[in-house]
Amino acid sequence: MDTGLRHSHRLHIPPVHTKHTSICQLQIEKFVLTSVSSSLKNTPMKEIIRLTLIRHGETLWNKEGRIQGVSDIALSDTGVEQARRLAFSLKDSDIGAIIASPLKRAYQTAEIINSFHGKKIEVHSGLMELDQGDFEGRSFQDILTLEKAFLRKWIADPASVRMPRGESLADLQERAWHSIEKMISGGQNALVVAHNFTLAVILCRFQNIGLSEFRSVCVNTASKTVIRILNGEASMEAINDCSHLKDSPDVKKS
To answer: Which domain holds residue 221?
Structure first.
């Protein structure tokens, strides 16, 4: 595990074999489950609703350590198997709506989950991954080696940075949160399939933490995070749950 981008302004370049597959994922790998709350006073409700946030399964670009962003990459064979295991773990869940990013890796994951539920999958473009502009398709190692000036800014204050010819975290949070507000106002349990940065900025908003702390809430591929909402308050029931993947050495988390 490398924590250079999380705790220090000094650039640290991990070895080529690093398993981290995006700028987001220089992070702790296991979350301690804590109760958190966030003001949702504009969307009062008497019934408990649950949002289940899913990160899509693995792609070849995840495995190769390439930056995906809005590039439309399909699930790998491993990603399909991850999604199947994830779907089985959710087969008895009370899910009123399934919402997905239009990118293949998210939509395919949603389709596999939906095989147990038979819902019409809603597509929200606001849930697409961060547009990483000129970095898309490049390897993570290439960025670490050749884009040190950018990474120094990213280390110091990621909330102030815009990807070259791409988006900022604030841009992403604004569009993604519109989708979340729609789901909450719908008043039913919803399952959301999205992406690395997208889920991180959503969780920042729920936990009322700044975007420069987004690394503390990054989650693994094919993970599930469950948020309970009642009377305008949100609390975490599970975060970065990958227990459904642990029973097979052939199914990798990232």
So the answer is: 4-245
CB 101 within 8 A of CB 124: yes
Q: What is the pTM of this model?
A: 0.82
Q: What's the distance, CA 134 to chain centroid?
A: 21
Whether 4 contacts 20, CB under 8 Å = no
Task: Report the number of distinct structural domains present in the chain.
Answer: 1
Each residue's pLDDT tens digit, 13-23 = 222 222 333 44
Instruction: Name 51's bridge partners.
Output: 190, 227
- Render pLDDT for 42-81 as a digit per residue (tens, 0 to 9): 555 557 899 999 999 999 999 999 999 999 999 999 999 9
Residue 52, strand partner residues: 191, 226
Asked, for residue 251, whether it belongs to a domain, the answer is no
- The verdict on residue 250 lying in a domain is no
HEC-encoded secondary structure of 60-96: HHHHHCECCCCCCCCECHHHHHHHHHHHHHCCCCCCC
Q: List the CATH number of the domain containing 16.
A: 3.40.50.1240
Alpha-helical (H) ranges within the chain are 4-7, 60-64, 77-89, 104-114, 140-146, 148-156, 169-185, 196-207
Does 253 reside within a domain? no
Task: Give the list of residues 6+ apart from residue 249 with CB closer than 8 angstroms, or none.
Answer: none
CA 88 – CA 116 distance, rounded (Å)? 8
State yes or no: pLDDT of 30 exceeds 70. no
